Sequence to fold (127 residues):
Amino acid sequence: MLQLRRRRLWIALSLVLLAAVLVGSLQPNPGPPVPSGFDKVEHLAAYILLSLWFTGLVARGRYWVVASGLLALGLLIEVLQWRMNLGRSAETLDMLANTLGVGVGITLALLATGGWAPRLESWLGWK
Fold:
């Protein structure tokens, strides 16, 4: 993790974010049906945002850990959806969308957004 003044806050927010993704992905009744294929856009967007979040907290040399962890999370969620048998379905295309999202997020981090958390702390004047 980068040198952060509010390290505990960033860790807590990260855990809340991960918990929200898990709950949202594993809840038995996902709500009203979405248009065909739109859930793949949701997967893509979620994993772009997760990648951007975590690359803001770690050094560039650790982006592979972020990518590996998020891909493992996506795979775990798909396996759990399959095993739980509570109205959720595991799909290969979901995992493909997750993987693409991680790739896009890591690329954006490498090009522009990586390490944003210390810059934000500085901008906010956190000491």
About this structure: The mean pLDDT is 93. The chain is about 70% helix and 0% strand.
